[in-house]
From TrEMBL:
<keyword id="KW-0446">Lipid-binding</keyword>
<dbReference type="InterPro" id="IPR001680">
    <property type="entry name" value="WD40_rpt"/>
</dbReference>
<keyword id="KW-0072">Autophagy</keyword>
<dbReference type="InterPro" id="IPR036322">
    <property type="entry name" value="WD40_repeat_dom_sf"/>
</dbReference>
<dbReference type="GO" id="GO:0006950">
    <property type="term" value="P:response to stress"/>
</dbReference>
<comment type="similarity">
    <text>Belongs to the WD repeat PROPPIN family.</text>
</comment>
<dbReference type="GO" id="GO:0032266">
    <property type="term" value="F:phosphatidylinositol-3-phosphate binding"/>
</dbReference>
<feature type="region of interest" description="Disordered">
    <location>
        <begin position="362"/>
        <end position="443"/>
    </location>
</feature>
<dbReference type="InterPro" id="IPR048720">
    <property type="entry name" value="PROPPIN"/>
</dbReference>
<dbReference type="GO" id="GO:0034497">
    <property type="term" value="P:protein localization to phagophore assembly site"/>
</dbReference>
<feature type="compositionally biased region" description="Acidic residues">
    <location>
        <begin position="362"/>
        <end position="375"/>
    </location>
</feature>
<protein>
    <recommendedName>
        <fullName>WD repeat domain, phosphoinositide interacting 1</fullName>
    </recommendedName>
</protein>
<keyword id="KW-0853">WD repeat</keyword>
<dbReference type="GO" id="GO:0034045">
    <property type="term" value="C:phagophore assembly site membrane"/>
</dbReference>
<dbReference type="Pfam" id="PF21032">
    <property type="entry name" value="PROPPIN"/>
</dbReference>
<keyword id="KW-0677">Repeat</keyword>
<keyword id="KW-0472">Membrane</keyword>
Length: 443
């Protein structure tokens, strides 16, 4: 199943292919027609491009490991091959080739996970050894999966069914299935863990309800209603670092932020407001109503929102603390990063405080009037599941001739550049402050 080519959509920057935030939302990676770019997202007023990679063109997957020098890249020219680079040294650490197109890659300090349409490969990130292959997984054409960034548990979530919203939670450290969660009636569209790997948020293809489950138990903790009027395509889910908030973006003009808080009965008794009274009446009445009506009444609405000027294009969103204040980041396929202030107390409409170009002005589309005044360009959405929103080539490249290609579904490792650290032993990225040795990460 091929996905639409973003470059053909009106409003999409012609150089843009994909975008992703790193695990702690301090960096933004952008795949482009000429390669990829890494940006530092640590200040509101400036967006520094810290690296531009041109090793291969048409990059549709680019993932950086926290703030280290390790970056994983997959190109449309070789969609079955994953390249792992040490971008500060400009060297290739290693590469792996797989039996089919790579749809997504996830990584933490312990594991690197590669997702194909019907299989998942789990590598040990220290030496890139293939530890486990999950074959014959339910058909997953978008490569949907999520990996906990907490390498102490390394939980992996992926669809357990192609026709229903079932989630398989897998322990990528101990290489065993943890639990199955019946999350939605419709197939899954989005998954994300909180930073500690103790909560998992999900949305279905209908996009109306977002649910949060406890991990590893799989118990439903929260249920949020994004909307009732129409089905939408959720393109991005992301927790704040403290897991107090969850943001969701879609192919509509609205980004929703939900607050994860349990409603305490004691608080309602202390402040007997009219809304609290009505809430109690609804709770009492829900016990007598059909389950569908009761569930709808018990769903929480958005705590805060962002109104984009246009809809229909891909985006990714993330919640981050930048310069000590909570912000919502929206990376858009129009070639811009938008930064909004979030009021953590009162919520409401978020305020746009900054807009950054992801491409130089001379790279802009010259045939569109809006580009003459970049401030007038409306935010347009980028993609979370990269391959889900990027066209794989209509004519498949001769990937069957790639070194290491295997008909049995296995991954094959290419040559390792001898002078690189991986030739000697475990990875050492010369970023000890940004990427402490795995042995010191005791959780």
């Amino acid at each position: 199943m091929e996905s639409p080519d973003l470059s053909d959509d009106p409003g999409v920057h012609r150089g843009f292919i994909c975008a992703s935030f790193n695990q702690d939302t301090t960096s933004l990676s952008v795949g482009t027609k000429t390669g990829y770019r890494l940006f530092s997202v640590t200040a509101v007023d400036k967006l520094d491009c810290i690296h531009e990679g041109v090793e291969c063109p048409d990059v549709y997957i680019v993932e950086r490991l926290f703030s280290s020098s390790l970056v994983v890249v997959v190109s449309l020219s070789m969609p079955r091959r994953m390249n792992v680079y040490h971008f500060k040294k400009g060297t290739e650490i290693c590469n792996y080739s797989y039996s089919n197109n790579i749809l997504s890659v996830r990584l933490n300090r312990q594991r690197l996970v590669v997702c194909l349409e019907e299989s998942i490969y789990i590598h040990n990130i220290k030496d890139m050894k293939l530890l486990k292959t999950l074959l014959n997984t339910p058909t997953n054409p978008s490569g949907l999966c999520a990996l906990s960034i907490n390498h102490g548990n390394s939980f992996l979530a992926y669809p357990g069914s192609a026709t229903m919203g079932e989630i398989t939670v897998y322990d990528a450290n101990n290489l065993s299935t943890v639990t199955l969660i019946q999350a939605h009636d419709s197939p899954l569209a989005a998954l994300t863990f909180n930073a500690s790997g103790t909560k998992l948020a999900s949305a279905s293809e209908k996009g109306t309800v977002i649910r949060v489950f406890s991990i590893p138990e799989g118990q439903k903790l929260f249920e949020f209603r994004r909307g009732m009027k129409r089905y939408v395509s959720i393109s991005s889910l992301s927790f704040s670092a403290d897991a107090q908030f969850l943001c969701a973006s879609s192919n509509t003009e609205t980004v929703h932020i939900f607050k994860l808080e349990q409603h305490s009965p004691s608080q309602e008794e202390e402040s007997p407001t009219w809304s609290a009274y009505v809430g109690k009446m609804f709770t009492a009445a829900s016990t007598y109503l059909p389950s569908q009506v009761s569930d709808m009444m018990n769903q929480d609405r958005a705590f805060a929102t962002v109104r984009l000027n246009m809809f229909g294009l891909k985006n990714i969103c993330a919640l981050a603390t930048i310069q000590k204040l909570p912000r919502l980041l929206v990376a858009s396929s129009d070639g811009y990063l938008y930064i909004y202030n979030v009021d953590p107390q009162d919520g409401g409409e978020c305020v746009l405080v900054q807009k950054h170009r992801l491409f130089e002005s001379n790279e802009e589309q010259g045939d569109q009037k809006e580009e003459e005044n970049p401030e007038d360009v409306p935010p347009q959405p980028a993609s979370q599941t990269y391959a889900a929103t990027v066209a794989l080539p209509t004519t498949a490249p001769s990937s069957t001739t790639l070194m290491g290609y295997s008909e049995d579904g296995g991954a094959q490792r290419g040559e390792v550049i001898p002078e690189h650290e991986f030739a000697e032993g475990p990875v050492c990225l010369d970023d000890e402050n940004e990427f402490p040795p795995v042995g010191n990460q005791n959780n």
